[in-house]
């Protein structure tokens, strides 16, 4: 997973950084980059089209490496742009997920996505999330219900949010008994300072690898996906979930 600094509005520079991250991932089949990395996390956002020619070097690098690279960008829409995850490595960049839960000022700048996404990567189901999505247990649960064994999240947390950042992503792993892979923004971007958080967590919420806070870097891990079924068997939270009605009001 990649923890990188983005230059607001400089797509070519950010693509060059992403291409370098692909080379550093060295054989990984999946690489997750930060939220809004390609256009920079600024509000209002710099906006690009899906066919922007500046994206071509990343597409070529991903295809050459035989990897799927997930990267965030603000993509032009009919009325408002969307805060979108693009997938590189196929025949062309694909728009695969629009962030469903918009936070703070994002609500004034973007249109929210209406549906989740689960990718099929060589037969393994990978659900996508963007930052604030991971704060909602229901988002991770919907991914698990759709058969996901990995929850891939792109994030951009402001400095000072480290505790909540890690708690949310590790909790989603534990809640759902799947792996969580996080790509994170770090350092200055526009008026913001971002704290990183790139990591891979196992199905019990233990951190397997992580990039140190405040640093740029790439970490990878070989995931034993059979551990998902084993963990869910040992801790059957998903299977034993009950449909609960509203709480009763009791006067004492």
Q: How is the topology of this model organized?
A:
Layout: E1 2-4, H1 11-25, E2 30-32, H2 56-65, E3 68-75, E4 82-88, E5 94-98, H3 106-109, E6 118-121, E7 124-130, H4 137-145, E8 150-155, H5 162-176, E9 179-189, E10 192-195, E11 199-201, E12 207-210, E13 217-218, H6 226-234
Explain this structure to me?
- By secondary structure, the chain is α/β, with parallel strands linked by helices.
- The chain has six helices and 13 strands.
- The protein has helices at 11-25, 56-65, 106-109, 137-145, 162-176, 226-234, and strands spanning 2-4, 30-32, 68-75, 82-88, 94-98, 118-121, 124-130, 150-155, 179-189, 192-195, 199-201, 207-210, 217-218.
- The strands form two sheets. Strands 1, 6, 7, 8, 9, 10, 11, 12 and 13 form a nine-stranded mixed beta sheet that branches.
- The mean pLDDT is 96.
């Amino acid at each position: 997973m990649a923890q990188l600094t983005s230059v607001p509005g400089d797509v070519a520079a950010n693509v060059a950084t992403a291409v370098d991250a692909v080379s550093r991932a060295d054989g990984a089949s999946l690489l997750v980059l930060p939220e809004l990395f390609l256009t920079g996390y600024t509000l209002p956002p710099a906006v690009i089209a899906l066919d922007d020619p500046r994206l071509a070097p990343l597409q070529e690098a991903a295809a050459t490496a035989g990897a799927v690279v997930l990267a965030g960008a603000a993509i032009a829409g009919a009325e408002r742009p969307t805060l979108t995850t693009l997938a590189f490595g196929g025949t062309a960049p694909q728009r695969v997920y629009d962030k469903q839960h918009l936070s703070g000022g994002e609500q004034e700048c973007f249109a929210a996505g209406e549906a989740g996404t689960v990718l099929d990567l060589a037969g393994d189901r990978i659900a996508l999330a963007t930052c604030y999505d991971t704060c909602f247990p229901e988002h991770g649960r919907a991914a698990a219900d759709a058969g996901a064994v990995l929850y891939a999240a792109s994030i951009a947390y402001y400095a000072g949010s480290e505790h909540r950042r890690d708690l949310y992503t590790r909790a989603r792993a534990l809640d759902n008994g799947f792996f969580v892979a996080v790509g994170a923004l770090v350092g200055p971007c526009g008026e913001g300072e971002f704290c990183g958080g790139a990591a891979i967590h196992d199905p019990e919420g233990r951190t397997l690898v992580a990039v140190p806070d405040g640093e740029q870097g790439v970490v990878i891990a070989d995931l034993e996906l059979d551990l998902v079924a084993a963990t869910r068997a040992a801790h059957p939270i998903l299977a034993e979930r009950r449909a609960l009605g509203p709480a009763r009001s009791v006067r004492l």
